[in-house]
């Protein structure tokens, strides 16, 4: 009889563990749902980049891991027979310690006639007890209510915003996807994009936009030698494609810029490199006078030194440009044009000529 009661206590202990595990599972799912709602709503308004999405995903994984650990701990908890009996007697005062006394006396195994009589009597009250009444119904009801509210939190934004909410949730649970956030306004193209343009000239910056009427369009300009400046270019007036343009009066230095329009996500920065006009940075002359002058060869800086050339002098030219060029030609007064040859560097060109037309 005592052995049978021990088996029943083990079953009740397993039932108590299941109740605790279920309560933790429901609360854990609710906590995960609330965090997912917070991260999804944040992505709708802040449009997380890859790092923000990964951090949110890691936080969700940590919360899921903690919830599973708590549930597993509750399921694997071992209840002693006496502990279960004490819990039952606390829930059902009418047992009046008969249950735990019965288990203790039955396990004693001695010849005490009082204990034997107690065990033979059994516990008639036990058969009238429904152990399911031990469950904390109020706590489970509250947990189920919290879960229901969490589901409502997750569903309501989807009803109000449709695809926007579903895309945000997908971007949080799968941060490695390249799915962009849903927006009402899109920047279709930017001109001239990233480019190298001639220094000193004006530059026209243009973007083509399509989006919601009334959304603003801005331009951020950040010169390399100054702080960033933001210009308001106007508002979208029609649902069709529209162009917005800003004119930089003079390109004096490298410039970074980006267009922003409404809720268009992740505006891209472009860079314009100011390219100086083509010019020579160095002209080296190696002059070998004719034999009749009995003068030795000399080297000159063609951009700084006065150079005197005698008729019949042989001149080696080495010119260096400030940027790469595709061809170079040297013109001397009174002489035929000389085509210079490219060296290993596209900025350095060499040529040779014999001056026959004069003495300078």
Protein architecture, described:
This protein is of the alpha+beta class. It is built from 7 helices and 15 strands. The chain has helices at residues 2-46, 50-75, 81-91, 98-108, 113-121, 137-161, 163-173, and strands at residues 186-191, 195-198, 203-210, 216-223, 229-235, 242-248, 255-261, 270-275, 280-288, 298-301, 313-321, 329-330, 338-339, 341-342, 348-355. Strands 2-8-7-4-5 form a 5-stranded mixed β-sheet, with no helix packed on it. It has a 5-stranded antiparallel β-sheet with strand order 10-9-11-15-14, with no helix packed on it. A 3-stranded antiparallel β-sheet has the order 1-3-6, with no helix packed on it. Strand 14 and strand 15 form a beta hairpin. Helix 1 packs antiparallel against helix 2 and helix 3 packs antiparallel against helix 4 (98-108). The longest helix has 45 residues, at 2-46. It is elongated and about 150 Å long. It starts with a helix and ends in a 5-residue tail after the last strand. The relative contact order is 0.09.
The residue ranges in which pLDDT falls below 50 over 5 or more consecutive positions are none
Record the strand order, biggest sheet: 2-8-7-4-5
| Helix percent band | 25-40%
Strand segment count: 15
Taken in chain order, the helices and strands follow as HHHHHHHEEEEEEEEEEEEEEE
Structural descriptors:
360 residues; alpha+beta; five-stranded mixed beta sheet; five-stranded antiparallel beta sheet; 15 strands; 38% helix; elongated
């Amino acid at each position: 009889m005592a052995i049978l009661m021990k088996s029943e206590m083990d079953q009740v202990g397993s039932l108590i563990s299941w109740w605790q595990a279920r309560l933790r599972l429901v609360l854990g799912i609710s906590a995960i749902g609330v965090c997912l709602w917070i991260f999804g709503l944040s992505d709708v308004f802040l449009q997380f980049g890859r790092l923000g999405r990964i951090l949110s995903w890691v936080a969700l994984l940590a919360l899921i891991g903690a919830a599973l650990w708590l549930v597993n701990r509750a399921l694997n908890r071992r209840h002693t027979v006496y502990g279960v009996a004490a819990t039952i007697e606390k829930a059902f005062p009418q047992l009046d310690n008969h249950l735990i006394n019965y288990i203790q006396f039955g396990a004693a195994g001695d010849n005490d006639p009082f204990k034997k009589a107690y065990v033979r009597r059994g516990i008639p009250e036990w058969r009238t007890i429904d152990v399911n009444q031990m469950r904390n119904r109020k706590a489970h009801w509250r947990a189920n209510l919290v879960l229901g509210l969490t589901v409502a939190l997750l569903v309501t934004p989807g009803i109000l915003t449709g695809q926007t909410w579903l895309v945000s949730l997908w971007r949080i649970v799968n941060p490695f996807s390249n799915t962009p956030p849903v927006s009402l306004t899109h920047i279709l193209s930017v001109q001239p994009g990233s480019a190298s343009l001639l220094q000193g000239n004006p530059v026209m910056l243009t973007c083509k936009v399509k989006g919601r009427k009334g959304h603003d369009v801005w331009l951020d300009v950040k010169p390399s030698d100054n702080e960033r400046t933001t210009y308001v270019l106007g508002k979208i007036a029609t649902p069709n494609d529209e162009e917005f343009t800003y004119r930089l009066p003079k390109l004096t230095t490298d410039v970074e810029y980006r267009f922003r329009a409404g809720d268009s996500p992740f505006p891209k920065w472009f860079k314009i490199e100011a390219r100086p006009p083509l010019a020579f940075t160095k002209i080296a002359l190696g002059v070998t006078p004719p034999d009749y002058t009995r003068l030795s060869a000399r080297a000159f800086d063609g951009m700084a030194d006065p150079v005197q050339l005698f008729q019949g002098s042989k001149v080696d030219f080495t010119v260096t440009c400030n940027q790469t060029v595709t061809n170079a030609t040297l013109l001397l007064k009174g002489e035929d044009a000389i085509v210079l040859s490219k060296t290993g560097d596209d900025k350095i060109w060499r040529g040779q000529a014999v001056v026959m037309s004069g003495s300078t």
